[in-house]
Amino acid sequence: MSAAKLSRTVPSNASGRSLAASRTCGQPWLVNALAYEACFRSENGHDRSRPIHVDSIDEARESLILRRVTHLDHLAQTLSEERVRRVVLPMLAGSSKDSWALRDLEYVRDLGLVAPDYPVRMANPIYAGVIPRELTLPLEATMAGSVDPAWYVKEDGSLDIYGLLSAFQGYFREHAESWVERYGHAEAGPQLVLHSYLQRVVNSGGRIGPEYAVGRGRTDLLIEWRQVKPDGQVCVRKYVIECKVRTAKTGLDRLIREGLEQTATYMDRVGSESGHLVIFDLRPGVPWEQRLYRKDPEPDGSPITVWGI
Asked: Which of 43, 188, 242, 297 has its CB 3.0 to 4.6 Å from that of 92, i.e. a possible disulfide?
């Protein structure tokens, strides 16, 4: 199944072909795998009278990632290499281009993980989704007995995002230090722990994806939650979570001001109903009583909640 075949399957007024191209950036194996998944493996694809819509492509992408098909599984194995992690982890944290050695960057580009040009970015959005998921799999497995997705689904089928982030504050305080050290990167470690905690819950009724903001000192996460209402109606609700790190050189007021502006911009772009700015305080010696807080939105301001961790 080729991209050309997919274009004949998708009606001319749909954007399935362009979405497949944007998700893969033309990587031949991924294009063919998406097309085969959407047209032959999925339940909707079996019905030849039904067109392949945008949702079918996204569902195919998620299926490929979750099944860890051969190509993506091989990709994930490279993450155990130290020189790969020296590039990928700073990218996850939104660090600048000066955060990695040129030889390491060239090596990761030769592997096909990173685009060959500038600005530095993952080779395609599918790889961008696979990498943090693979890095957090060991941690997510340890949460099976302590994080139950059912705790954070309300009676109307919506996601209790406030309860979820509040619970994460307690989890991070109790368990995160060893995991942050394991990742070997002070800024990326906390964000990976958060991603893993959210992934554990969101997998039950939606999806979560990161957006690498290389050189901008942050990482954006978008939760798309599939809410099934009591009357059977289904809607997709979006929540933006932006992560920033506070160090000894960073003023809190400026960090919050910049974070609120960046979160609001991202919310507007993706059509999110609420945003959450998570600030990890990495200053040494700061007691947890000062690190953990929640600042709710101003009544006349943007619907963004600030969480201190």
From this structure: 188
pTM of the model: 0.76
Rounded Cα distance between 109 and 122, Å, is: 9
What is the rounded distance in angstroms from the CA atom of residue 211 to the CA atom of residue 122? 10
Convert the pLDDT of each residue in 21-68 to its tens digit.
Answer: 777 777 777 888 888 888 887 766 666 667 777 777 777 877 777 776
pLDDT digits (tens, 9 = 90+) for 121-175: 888 888 887 888 888 877 887 887 778 888 999 999 999 999 999 999 999 998 7
Q: For residue 277, what are the contacts with CB-CB under 8 A and spacing of at least 6?
A: 242, 244, 256, 259, 260, 263, 304, 305, 306, 307
- Rounded Cα distance between 280 and 291, Å, is 8
Instruction: Report the alpha-carbon distance of residue 201 to residue 149 in Å, rounded.
Output: 4
Helix ranges restricted to H, 112-207: 125-142, 161-183, 188-202
Please state, in angstroms and rounded to a whole number, the distance separating the CA atoms of residues 172 and 170: 6
Query: Could you give the dihedral angle defined by the CA atoms of residues 120, 77, 178 and 289, in that order, rounded to the nearest 10 degrees?
Result: 40
Question: How many other CB atoms are found less than 10 A from the CB of residue 232?
Answer: 7
Phi/psi at 247 (5° precision): -115, 180
Degrees (nearest 5) of the Cα angle 292, 294, 297? 160
Cα dihedral: 229, 233, 234, 238 (round 10): -60
* 304-308 sheet: strands from edge to edge: 206-213, 218-228, 234-246, 274-281, 304-308, 293-295
